């Protein structure tokens, strides 16, 4: 039988079997991931399947299978919000073993250019959704139900380029963090204040983008306080180095209800604008009795710490010691 006759016989035979899945998958190389995913899901067996039985999703030189079909346990464990905007796939090596789970962005796939991210954690995928599509977990959760004015504004703002419109300026970020630390210090609150479930939900409702970009944990708040202390102390030192008068010191002693002694030390001066200024230089434990020698020792250490010329205050310290001895 000639080759032509053989082909005609196969084409006209009513009992010819459909082409094996391998051939049907060859035609899906050019399809977007969504169509291949739907086809792979439709062909999947309800029983546990090996990787060889699963329909392959192909993009370029990369091959995938649906992660939940490869391991049924993962279908119960995947609860991340990024699953609403993409698919969890298992990437295959040449020997058909899995090299790890991958998350594929559905929004990018809709444009014909799917993006793939490691699914071991959601940080990379979350950052991509935020930067490329203006989507956050909070925005998604708040978009259901009745829309508020803010929700409507945010929906409208999604039409703008998302690369920079959602990113807060550094100056604003720094100001917000400084205000949050000021609130904690002024109200004598613990560093865990902003970890409150109710406060965090309040921040999400007010501005989800702001909430997502500002760290609110105790560790970040403590570090912010330390950084602010260093920067503000440097600013005060600059003022002390540029006075038009000598720096005059005053102090006050206080004993707490549990019998602990404290001392506050202030510096008073006229600045370059010829304005009177007063700065708190120290508020610390006063060791020992309220004797002149102990107070003078504390003041001397504070003066050294601030780099103030000791000669400016020696007369005041000597007078203080003399008054205490009388």
TrEMBL record:
MF GO annotations: zinc ion binding
Alphabetic keyword roster: Metal-binding, Nucleus, Zinc, Zinc-finger
Subcellular compartments: Nucleus
Gene Ontology cellular-component annotations: nucleus
UniProt region (Disordered), positions on chain: 1-27
Chief place where the protein resides: nucleus
Protein's recorded name: BED-type domain-containing protein
Lineage: Eukaryota, Fungi, Dikarya, Ascomycota, Pezizomycotina
């Amino acid at each position: 039988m000639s080759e032509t006759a053989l082909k005609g016989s196969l084409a006209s035979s009513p009992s010819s079997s459909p082409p094996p899945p391998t051939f049907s998958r060859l035609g899906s190389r050019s399809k977007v991931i969504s169509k291949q995913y739907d086809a792979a899901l439709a062909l999947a067996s309800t029983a546990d399947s090996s990787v060889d039985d699963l329909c392959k999703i192909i993009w370029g030189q990369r091959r995938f299978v649906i992660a939940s079909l490869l391991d049924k346990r993962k279908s119960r464990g995947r609860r991340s919000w990024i699953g609403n905007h993409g698919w969890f796939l298992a990437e295959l090596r040449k020997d058909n073993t899995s090299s790890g789970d991958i998350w594929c962005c559905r929004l990018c796939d809709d444009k014909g250019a799917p993006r793939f991210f490691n699914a071991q954690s959601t940080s990379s995928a979350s950052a991509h959704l935020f930067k490329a599509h203006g989507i956050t977990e909070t925005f998604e959760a708040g978009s259901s139900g009745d829309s508020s004015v803010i929700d409507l504004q945010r929906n409208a703002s999604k039409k703008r380029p998302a690369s920079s419109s959602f990113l807060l300026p550094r100056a604003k970020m720094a100001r917000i963090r400084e205000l949050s630390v000021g609130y904690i210090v002024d109200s004598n609150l613990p560093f865990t204040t902003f970890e409150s479930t109710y406060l965090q939900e309040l921040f999400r409702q007010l501005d989800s983008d702001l909430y997502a970009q500002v760290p609110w944990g105790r560790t970040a708040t403590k570090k912010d306080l330390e950084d602010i202390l260093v920067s503000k102390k440097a600013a005060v030192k600059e003022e002390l180095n540029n006075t038009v008068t000598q720096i005059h010191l005053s102090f006050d002693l206080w004993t707490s209800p549990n019998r602990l002694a404290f001392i506050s030390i202030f510096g008073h001066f006229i600045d370059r604008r010829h304005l009177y200024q007063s700065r708190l230089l120290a508020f610390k434990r006063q060791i020992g009795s309220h004797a002149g020698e102990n107070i003078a020792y504390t003041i001397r250490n504070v003066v050294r710490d601030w780099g103030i010329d000791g000669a400016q205050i020696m007369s005041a310290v000597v007078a203080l010691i003399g008054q205490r001895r009388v």
